[in-house]
Amino acid sequence: MLVPAIFLRHDAMEMTDLHSGGRRQVPRERLSVVVTRRLPEPVETRLSELFNVRLRTDDTPMTRAELAAVMKEADVLVPTVTDTIDAALLGQAGDQLRLIANYGAGVDNIDVATARQRGILVSNTPGVLTDDTADMTMALIMAVVRRIPEGLALMQKGEWDGWAPTALLGGRLAGRRLGILGMGRIGQAVARRARAFGMQVHYNNRRRLRPETEEKLEATWWESLDQMVARMDVISIHCPSTPSTFHLMNARRLKLLKPEAVIVNTSRGEVIDENALTRGLRAGEIAGAGLDVYEHGTTINPRLRELPNVVLLPHMGSATLEGRIEMGEKVLLNIKTFEDGHRPPDQVVPAML
Ligand SMILES: NC(=O)C1=CN([C@@H]2O[C@H](COP(=O)(O)OP(=O)(O)OC[C@H]3O[C@@H](n4cnc5c(N)ncnc54)[C@H](O)[C@@H]3O)[C@@H](O)[C@H]2O)C=CC1
Ligand SMILES: O=C(O)C(=O)CO
């Protein structure tokens, strides 16, 4: 693996004095940075070299009280996607808290609008986890459509009694219609993979893609999500969790799915009404589901676990060592750029959401 550039720099204690025409290097106090979870070791090491950092010693999430306490002291908070940084916590934050550098692409865990009102910048880690999450999406699509967990269970139980012409028949991906909801970075990476598998790619997005991008992806645009949902064999969700995407896949829309269709979600659980999905799956109105994320965090509808046509993963879409180190690199760059007096390259503002 290539060592990212940020891990090779050693200018932690110096900054260019812009007022003297950039000629003088001036020492300055290091930013105090608090990280809420354990991060891959190279990331923690580099953070410690660059900043006055307080790392988490055990790999448990901070309690709300711990978050409130560190937000009173830090210049920069590095939370992860499971830390809820809401208006109440932001209201108690110390005046010196200037940047929340999220270790994650999704920022639905942070009240970005309130942070902005309080003059606190927010940044995230987009792009570096696109391929990994798209790979996992394809893995989920294949697992559900080709019934991989059922085969696995048979083998693990030692119950396989040999090849049979009619055993565990799934569906062929080639030719199937994939409807992508949210055609941003990950949606487009899924589209490219799906085309390689011979799937027909369709999409609904807040904005239609440029014609050349659409052409390159060989993707068909649907202005109406309802109409797209009703015609697809697979629906894959890649829009962020925002007030406007909450339960976008609600009971009414789930009912539009063809009974042989499957639904996959590696975005955020809140986009699907999980209870309605469970009902639809149990009633045979939806053929299967592959989920990496859940509406209520780790509290998963127990009925989902009982269904053989449902594949559940523990939010591991971006879980590669490479991706997690590159997410750290993004966090480092965002903090360092901010420390140097510029906007973090991955700043998130409410208008983007
Ligand atoms: N499972 C995992 O481990 C991971 C999950 N994620 C999730 O994936 C999400 C997407 O990530 P990216 O593709 O990098 O984001 P992105 O910002 O590049 O793409 C999101 C797309 O959704 C579209 N969108 C927003 N609201 C919409 C609506 N109401 N209807 C239709 N389309 C809408 C946007 O226009 C944009 O094209 C993240 O916000 C995060 O929640 C991201 C990384 C890893
Ligand atoms: O980055 C994100 O948004 C995730 O869900 C975890 O990588």
Automatic annotation (TrEMBL):
Coiled coil: none annotated. GO terms for cellular component: cytosol. Belongs to the D-isomer specific 2-hydroxyacid dehydrogenase family. Residues 33-348 form the D-isomer specific 2-hydroxyacid dehydrogenase catalytic domain. Residues 138-317 form the D-isomer specific 2-hydroxyacid dehydrogenase NAD-binding domain. Keywords: NAD, Oxidoreductase. InterPro entries: D-isomer_2-hydroxyacid_DH (IPR050223), D-isomer_2_OHA_DH_cat_dom (IPR006139), D-isomer_DH_NAD-bd (IPR006140), NAD(P)-bd_dom_sf (IPR036291). The keyword Transferase does not apply. CDD domains: GDH (cd05301). PANTHER family: 2-HYDROXYACID DEHYDROGENASE-RELATED, GLYOXYLATE_HYDROXYPYRUVATE REDUCTASE B. The keyword Cell membrane does not apply. This is Glycerate dehydrogenase. It is an enzyme of class 1 (oxidoreductase). Its EC number is 1.1.1.29. GO terms for molecular function: glyoxylate reductase (NADPH) activity; hydroxypyruvate reductase (NADH) activity; NAD binding.
